[in-house]
Specification:
Blueprint lengths: L9 H33 L2 H5 L13 H7 L4 H30 L7 H9 L8 H10 L16 H12 L3 H9 L4 H12 L1 H17 L2 H6 L8 H21 L5 H5 L4 H36 L2
Helix pairs in contact: 1-14, 4-7, 4-10, 4-12, 7-14, 8-9, 10-14, 12-14
Length: 300
Protein backbone atom coordinates (compact mmCIF):
# COMPACT_ATOMS: atom_id res chain seq x y z
CA UNK A 1 0.00 0.00 0.00
CA UNK A 2 1.40 3.34 -1.00
CA UNK A 3 1.52 5.90 1.73
CA UNK A 4 1.38 9.51 0.84
CA UNK A 5 3.42 11.84 2.93
CA UNK A 6 1.07 14.40 4.34
CA UNK A 7 2.30 17.93 3.82
CA UNK A 8 2.39 20.43 6.60
CA UNK A 9 -0.35 23.01 6.71
CA UNK A 10 0.47 26.74 6.60
CA UNK A 11 -0.48 27.07 10.27
CA UNK A 12 1.96 24.31 11.26
CA UNK A 13 4.74 25.91 9.23
CA UNK A 14 4.01 29.29 10.79
CA UNK A 15 4.02 27.79 14.28
CA UNK A 16 7.35 26.00 13.72
CA UNK A 17 8.96 29.14 12.32
CA UNK A 18 7.78 31.25 15.24
CA UNK A 19 8.78 28.57 17.78
CA UNK A 20 12.20 28.17 16.17
CA UNK A 21 12.73 31.92 16.20
CA UNK A 22 11.76 32.15 19.87
CA UNK A 23 14.08 29.29 20.79
CA UNK A 24 16.89 30.97 18.87
CA UNK A 25 16.35 34.27 20.68
CA UNK A 26 16.21 32.47 24.04
CA UNK A 27 19.43 30.59 23.29
CA UNK A 28 21.19 33.81 22.31
CA UNK A 29 20.00 35.52 25.49
CA UNK A 30 21.40 32.63 27.54
CA UNK A 31 24.72 32.53 25.69
CA UNK A 32 25.34 36.27 25.52
CA UNK A 33 26.24 36.82 29.22
CA UNK A 34 28.98 34.17 28.98
CA UNK A 35 30.21 35.62 25.70
CA UNK A 36 30.21 39.11 27.20
CA UNK A 37 32.20 37.97 30.25
CA UNK A 38 34.73 36.22 28.02
CA UNK A 39 35.13 39.28 25.78
CA UNK A 40 35.68 41.54 28.77
CA UNK A 41 38.17 39.14 30.36
CA UNK A 42 40.44 38.87 27.30
CA UNK A 43 40.28 42.49 26.13
CA UNK A 44 42.69 45.31 26.89
CA UNK A 45 42.19 46.28 30.53
CA UNK A 46 42.36 50.01 29.89
CA UNK A 47 39.75 49.84 27.10
CA UNK A 48 37.51 47.79 29.37
CA UNK A 49 37.88 50.26 32.25
CA UNK A 50 36.87 53.20 30.02
CA UNK A 51 33.92 51.31 28.50
CA UNK A 52 35.19 50.88 24.94
CA UNK A 53 34.63 47.10 24.77
CA UNK A 54 31.24 45.53 24.26
CA UNK A 55 30.45 43.10 21.42
CA UNK A 56 33.91 41.99 20.34
CA UNK A 57 37.31 41.86 22.07
CA UNK A 58 39.93 44.56 21.59
CA UNK A 59 43.60 44.09 22.36
CA UNK A 60 43.22 40.36 23.07
CA UNK A 61 45.41 38.95 25.85
CA UNK A 62 45.14 36.32 28.60
CA UNK A 63 47.11 38.09 31.33
CA UNK A 64 44.02 38.36 33.50
CA UNK A 65 43.72 34.57 33.70
CA UNK A 66 47.43 34.23 34.44
CA UNK A 67 47.19 36.80 37.22
CA UNK A 68 44.08 35.15 38.65
CA UNK A 69 45.81 31.77 38.86
CA UNK A 70 48.80 33.44 40.53
CA UNK A 71 46.70 34.52 43.49
CA UNK A 72 48.13 33.56 46.85
CA UNK A 73 46.42 30.46 48.20
CA UNK A 74 44.68 29.71 44.90
CA UNK A 75 45.87 26.09 44.77
CA UNK A 76 44.73 25.34 48.34
CA UNK A 77 41.40 27.05 47.72
CA UNK A 78 40.86 25.08 44.53
CA UNK A 79 41.44 21.70 46.23
CA UNK A 80 39.26 22.65 49.20
CA UNK A 81 36.43 23.68 46.88
CA UNK A 82 36.83 20.58 44.73
CA UNK A 83 36.98 18.33 47.79
CA UNK A 84 33.87 19.77 49.40
CA UNK A 85 32.00 19.63 46.09
CA UNK A 86 32.83 15.98 45.35
CA UNK A 87 32.48 14.66 48.91
CA UNK A 88 29.46 16.80 49.81
CA UNK A 89 27.64 15.91 46.59
CA UNK A 90 28.31 12.19 46.99
CA UNK A 91 27.12 12.14 50.62
CA UNK A 92 24.02 14.20 49.85
CA UNK A 93 23.01 12.01 46.89
CA UNK A 94 23.61 8.77 48.79
CA UNK A 95 21.85 9.79 52.02
CA UNK A 96 18.93 11.35 50.14
CA UNK A 97 18.43 8.19 48.09
CA UNK A 98 18.72 5.89 51.12
CA UNK A 99 16.40 7.96 53.34
CA UNK A 100 13.96 8.43 50.45
CA UNK A 101 13.92 4.65 49.97
CA UNK A 102 13.42 4.10 53.70
CA UNK A 103 10.51 6.52 53.89
CA UNK A 104 8.88 4.84 50.91
CA UNK A 105 8.48 1.61 52.93
CA UNK A 106 5.18 1.36 54.80
CA UNK A 107 6.75 -1.11 57.25
CA UNK A 108 9.29 1.48 58.39
CA UNK A 109 8.75 1.96 62.15
CA UNK A 110 7.26 5.38 62.91
CA UNK A 111 7.38 6.27 59.22
CA UNK A 112 4.82 9.09 59.30
CA UNK A 113 6.29 10.67 62.42
CA UNK A 114 9.90 10.60 61.21
CA UNK A 115 8.96 11.83 57.75
CA UNK A 116 7.05 14.78 59.20
CA UNK A 117 9.97 15.41 61.55
CA UNK A 118 12.29 15.70 58.52
CA UNK A 119 9.89 17.82 56.46
CA UNK A 120 9.35 20.35 59.26
CA UNK A 121 13.04 21.30 59.04
CA UNK A 122 12.29 22.82 55.64
CA UNK A 123 10.21 25.51 57.32
CA UNK A 124 11.95 26.14 60.63
CA UNK A 125 15.60 26.89 61.36
CA UNK A 126 17.48 27.56 64.58
CA UNK A 127 19.16 30.67 63.17
CA UNK A 128 22.71 31.84 62.63
CA UNK A 129 23.85 32.27 66.25
CA UNK A 130 22.57 28.88 67.53
CA UNK A 131 24.15 27.20 64.49
CA UNK A 132 27.47 28.93 65.18
CA UNK A 133 27.41 27.91 68.86
CA UNK A 134 26.46 24.36 67.92
CA UNK A 135 29.36 24.08 65.44
CA UNK A 136 31.69 25.55 68.03
CA UNK A 137 30.68 23.01 70.68
CA UNK A 138 31.12 20.21 68.14
CA UNK A 139 34.62 21.48 67.33
CA UNK A 140 33.84 22.02 63.66
CA UNK A 141 34.97 25.64 63.38
CA UNK A 142 38.08 26.09 61.27
CA UNK A 143 37.89 22.52 59.97
CA UNK A 144 37.16 21.10 56.54
CA UNK A 145 34.14 19.22 57.90
CA UNK A 146 32.24 22.46 58.46
CA UNK A 147 31.60 22.38 54.71
CA UNK A 148 30.25 18.82 54.77
CA UNK A 149 28.18 18.70 57.96
CA UNK A 150 24.95 19.87 56.29
CA UNK A 151 24.81 17.13 53.67
CA UNK A 152 21.33 15.94 54.72
CA UNK A 153 18.61 17.91 52.93
CA UNK A 154 14.89 17.47 53.58
CA UNK A 155 14.00 18.77 50.12
CA UNK A 156 16.33 16.28 48.42
CA UNK A 157 14.93 13.45 50.52
CA UNK A 158 11.42 14.43 49.45
CA UNK A 159 12.40 14.38 45.78
CA UNK A 160 14.14 11.02 46.13
CA UNK A 161 11.18 9.49 48.02
CA UNK A 162 8.71 10.66 45.37
CA UNK A 163 10.82 9.24 42.56
CA UNK A 164 11.44 5.88 44.26
CA UNK A 165 7.73 5.46 44.96
CA UNK A 166 7.13 5.72 41.20
CA UNK A 167 9.31 2.65 40.50
CA UNK A 168 7.49 -0.66 39.83
CA UNK A 169 6.93 -2.48 43.11
CA UNK A 170 7.05 -5.84 41.30
CA UNK A 171 10.83 -5.54 40.95
CA UNK A 172 11.30 -5.33 44.69
CA UNK A 173 8.79 -8.09 45.34
CA UNK A 174 10.63 -10.41 42.94
CA UNK A 175 13.94 -9.67 44.64
CA UNK A 176 12.43 -10.40 48.06
CA UNK A 177 11.16 -13.76 46.81
CA UNK A 178 14.75 -14.55 45.83
CA UNK A 179 15.89 -13.77 49.37
CA UNK A 180 17.27 -10.26 48.84
CA UNK A 181 17.26 -7.88 51.79
CA UNK A 182 16.60 -4.15 51.87
CA UNK A 183 20.26 -3.21 51.44
CA UNK A 184 20.68 -5.54 48.47
CA UNK A 185 17.48 -4.28 46.85
CA UNK A 186 18.54 -0.68 47.37
CA UNK A 187 22.08 -1.10 46.01
CA UNK A 188 21.28 -3.40 43.08
CA UNK A 189 17.79 -2.36 42.00
CA UNK A 190 16.65 0.96 43.44
CA UNK A 191 19.90 2.87 43.14
CA UNK A 192 20.58 2.04 39.44
CA UNK A 193 16.96 2.82 38.51
CA UNK A 194 17.09 6.11 40.43
CA UNK A 195 19.87 7.65 38.35
CA UNK A 196 17.60 10.43 36.97
CA UNK A 197 16.78 11.82 40.41
CA UNK A 198 20.31 11.17 41.72
CA UNK A 199 21.74 13.12 38.78
CA UNK A 200 19.31 15.94 39.52
CA UNK A 201 20.34 16.02 43.18
CA UNK A 202 24.02 15.94 42.18
CA UNK A 203 23.56 18.99 39.94
CA UNK A 204 21.73 20.96 42.65
CA UNK A 205 24.24 20.04 45.35
CA UNK A 206 27.39 20.45 43.26
CA UNK A 207 26.39 23.94 42.14
CA UNK A 208 25.62 24.90 45.73
CA UNK A 209 28.96 23.64 47.06
CA UNK A 210 30.98 25.12 44.22
CA UNK A 211 29.37 28.55 44.54
CA UNK A 212 29.31 28.77 48.34
CA UNK A 213 31.49 31.21 50.26
CA UNK A 214 29.36 32.47 53.17
CA UNK A 215 30.20 29.43 55.30
CA UNK A 216 33.86 30.38 54.90
CA UNK A 217 33.09 33.94 55.98
CA UNK A 218 31.21 32.77 59.07
CA UNK A 219 33.06 29.69 60.27
CA UNK A 220 36.60 29.57 58.83
CA UNK A 221 39.64 31.74 59.56
CA UNK A 222 42.41 29.36 58.48
CA UNK A 223 43.75 30.56 55.09
CA UNK A 224 44.45 26.94 54.13
CA UNK A 225 40.72 26.14 54.34
CA UNK A 226 39.33 29.05 52.37
CA UNK A 227 37.23 28.20 49.35
CA UNK A 228 37.91 29.35 45.82
CA UNK A 229 34.85 31.60 45.74
CA UNK A 230 35.87 33.30 48.99
CA UNK A 231 39.35 33.88 47.65
CA UNK A 232 38.01 35.31 44.42
CA UNK A 233 35.56 37.46 46.34
CA UNK A 234 38.44 39.00 48.30
CA UNK A 235 40.39 39.48 45.10
CA UNK A 236 37.47 41.27 43.46
CA UNK A 237 37.13 43.52 46.50
CA UNK A 238 40.81 44.39 46.25
CA UNK A 239 40.47 45.11 42.56
CA UNK A 240 37.56 47.46 43.28
CA UNK A 241 39.72 49.42 45.71
CA UNK A 242 42.44 49.50 43.08
CA UNK A 243 39.99 50.92 40.58
CA UNK A 244 39.11 53.73 43.00
CA UNK A 245 42.79 54.55 43.42
CA UNK A 246 43.20 54.52 39.65
CA UNK A 247 40.31 56.93 39.23
CA UNK A 248 41.75 59.29 41.84
CA UNK A 249 45.28 59.13 40.41
CA UNK A 250 44.97 61.58 37.55
CA UNK A 251 48.75 61.55 36.95
CA UNK A 252 48.85 57.82 36.08
CA UNK A 253 49.70 57.39 32.42
CA UNK A 254 47.68 55.37 29.95
CA UNK A 255 50.59 52.97 29.36
CA UNK A 256 50.62 52.07 33.07
CA UNK A 257 46.87 51.64 33.15
CA UNK A 258 47.04 49.18 30.26
CA UNK A 259 49.20 46.87 32.35
CA UNK A 260 47.03 47.08 35.46
CA UNK A 261 44.18 44.62 35.93
CA UNK A 262 41.00 46.67 36.13
CA UNK A 263 38.17 45.83 38.48
CA UNK A 264 35.79 45.04 35.61
CA UNK A 265 38.29 42.82 33.79
CA UNK A 266 39.14 40.92 36.94
CA UNK A 267 35.51 40.53 37.91
CA UNK A 268 34.71 39.02 34.53
CA UNK A 269 37.80 36.80 34.62
CA UNK A 270 37.12 35.28 38.01
CA UNK A 271 33.45 34.85 37.14
CA UNK A 272 34.48 32.83 34.10
CA UNK A 273 36.84 30.73 36.24
CA UNK A 274 34.04 29.98 38.70
CA UNK A 275 31.41 29.31 36.03
CA UNK A 276 33.29 27.15 33.53
CA UNK A 277 33.61 24.01 35.73
CA UNK A 278 29.86 23.93 36.34
CA UNK A 279 29.20 24.33 32.61
CA UNK A 280 31.01 21.04 32.05
CA UNK A 281 28.84 19.28 34.63
CA UNK A 282 25.46 19.86 33.00
CA UNK A 283 26.09 18.03 29.67
CA UNK A 284 26.82 14.78 31.55
CA UNK A 285 23.62 14.97 33.63
CA UNK A 286 21.33 16.66 31.12
CA UNK A 287 19.66 13.46 29.88
CA UNK A 288 18.67 12.59 33.47
CA UNK A 289 17.92 16.06 34.75
CA UNK A 290 14.51 16.80 33.16
CA UNK A 291 13.10 13.33 33.87
CA UNK A 292 14.26 13.36 37.47
CA UNK A 293 12.93 16.78 38.39
CA UNK A 294 9.60 16.30 36.58
CA UNK A 295 8.82 13.01 38.29
CA UNK A 296 9.86 14.46 41.64
CA UNK A 297 7.59 17.44 41.05
CA UNK A 298 4.33 15.95 39.78
CA UNK A 299 3.97 12.62 41.54
CA UNK A 300 1.95 12.71 44.73
Amino acid sequence: MESKKKGRSPSEICFQVIAGFMFLITALLCIFPFYYMFVMSVSDNYLVSVGQVFLYPKGIHFKNYVEAFKMGGFEDAFWVTLGRTVLGTALTALTSAWMGYSFSKTEFWGRNFWFKFVVVTMYFSAGLIPNYLNYKMLGLLDTFWIYIIGFVSAYNILLAKTFIESLPSSLEESAMLDGAGYLTIFSRIVLPLSMPIIATLCVFTAVGHWSSYMDTVLYVKNPKLQTLQYLLYNYISQSTRLAVIMQQGATISEDILKNVVSATSLRMTVTMIVTIPMLFVYPFFQKYFVKGIMIGAIKG
